[in-house]
């Protein structure tokens, strides 16, 4: 296929670089940051552009891999009469953002966290597709299966639930790792000592029901330890005391304490 891409950030770079191995012809790379655009274009053997209106329309597929809030603006700048398939890579953006403006519209959403320089095992990355026509679904299935063994046709609502769940499972949990690192480093303790615990917790979450895997003082309703932790935070890192209290309360609500006389 003849493919162009709008965006030159983490998702665009990983996705385009992975697809390059399958013999597609990369026509244009378009984006705001010229240095990033030129770097990705060089990798793909494509033209580097900063103006959407300069994109060659003699293509089969246009991938929009930009920040969610920028997708609508990008689509509005495309020619409505374009016959090629236009897809975005967002988990939370409805396909209608494209289909309301462009005839052939779809979604190619890889459920993964991307960082520059990291290696991605694409064969195990779930890829979720959606399109406004059967023939476009077929195109996206074929494209997705070049990358991954796990390609699913999901609606925009289903994809949104996945993206929201991913924020909790990935972004929020990583922020908790950040807090944990700050807590131990403030006392001269090596954060790497928590690595086996972090890995074991993630492994359990994928092997058994997370609610069953829950442990800790909040789940046990150990008020003495909870108070001790709060006092420590209030003394050394008061900005995180509210976060600790809120999460502990949520866990306690999820794991209601059974009165001793009813056990």
UniProtKB/TrEMBL annotation:
Annotated protein name in UniProt: Predicted oxidoreductase, contains short-chain dehydrogenase (SDR) and DUF2520 domains
Keyword Ribosomal protein among record annotations: no
TM region positions: none
Keyword entries, A-Z: Oxidoreductase
Coiled-coil intervals: none
UniProt domain Putative oxidoreductase/dehydrogenase Rossmann-like: residue ranges: 2-106
InterPro entries named in the record: 6-PGluconate_DH-like_C_sf, DUF2520, NAD(P)-bd_dom_sf, OxRdtase/DH_put_Rossmann_dom, TM1727-like_C_sf
Gene Ontology terms, MF aspect: oxidoreductase activity
Pfam families, alphabetized: DUF2520, Rossmann-like
UniProt domain DUF2520: residue ranges: 125-250
